[in-house]
Amino acid sequence: MKKPAQSHDHDHAAEPLADLTSRLRQKSQRVTAPRQAILALLREHRHPMTNKEIHAALAKGDCDLATLYRSMHLLEGMGMVKRFDFGDGAARFELVTGDAHAHHHHLVCTCCADIVEIDDCFAAELEARVAAAHGFKTVTHKLEFFGVCPDCQQAGHSHDKAKRSRRKPCGC
Amino acid sequence: MKKPAQSHDHDHAAEPLADLTSRLRQKSQRVTAPRQAILALLREHRHPMTNKEIHAALAKGDCDLATLYRSMHLLEGMGMVKRFDFGDGAARFELVTGDAHAHHHHLVCTCCADIVEIDDCFAAELEARVAAAHGFKTVTHKLEFFGVCPDCQQAGHSHDKAKRSRRKPCGC
DNA sequence: CCATTGACTGCAAATCGTTTGCATGAAGCA
DNA sequence: TGCTTCATGCAAACGATTTGCAGTCAATGG
Questions:
Q1: Residues of B with Cβ-Cβ distance to A161 under 8 angstroms
Q2: Span CA (B6) to C1' (C28), Å
Q3: Sheet of A115-118: strands edge to edge?
């Protein structure tokens, strides 16, 4: 088996792993090895990851893919992770950091899949406007931007927007 | 087989079917029965439809599901239909009408899946702002709103936003 | 009007992301 | 320490979408 309680190393300004697990416990959810591994990994990444990426990044045997999916549902339901959809058919997840920066969007390079975070959300006001105009309640929105990043522009690739690439943000 | 050139009936201010098929022909694509059936059906609907819905709406035998998927790719590539993603795992398509109203978003009821079109796109300016701020080129965006429509609010259902319903915009 | 030919279609099998059933295993509590 | 319940691993099931293949047909030239 694996080290039971690694609470040291890699800690770049992120919430301590212990705090994360205690959040789990407080909501009467069990703190299991797979869940700890997932949270520990997500702490390291500032950009959303697909379940496949998460699964590949975890030590082999740390967490079954089915368990991973179940865990992400659980964490999403608890508000500990946020789900993003870049339109390529695979959900992406990001750890919800307690601080500000909570609500944000992304700018995804359709060429190299590089991701930039867009912090200021201009859509909040629009949300209210839209809700009022149509009588809807509890309105939320999904907004993501796609384009070609500076590096890829230089690379000289002939990238017309999204083309029909469904599998990857980029078809390179 | 079916009537070869029905260019009459149902015609509420939409582009004539003949014009649509000629657009196909001009791009050196063949005008086949399945494609005509698809275009004819899409002309009737102002809201985006999933391939399953389109397939179900077409007369049995009019178009195989595989052909439907291939056709939608073709039409999307030609710019004759636009693809929308409501985050429920199924792509939706809408006929691109030559007129204005080209670029628009939707407000989807998470309860009854009712759809309202949002014509004014405030995001266009944001797109430019985002592109400039990060050096990206050919930036596009995907933006959809979700909420509970007036009718569903009355129905008294206890609908907290999207919950974890992935399959349908609504989990009613 | 008929032959030609490559694009298009239907069908079935294959993919991919995601979910679920089930028996075993372990977290948290008495 | 033992119980009870929740969580996990494995495999099979699923739904959306894609693809291989052989037969079919729209567009074209004769």
A1: 138, 140
A2: 70
A3: A115-118, A105-109, A137-148, B137-148, B105-109, B115-118
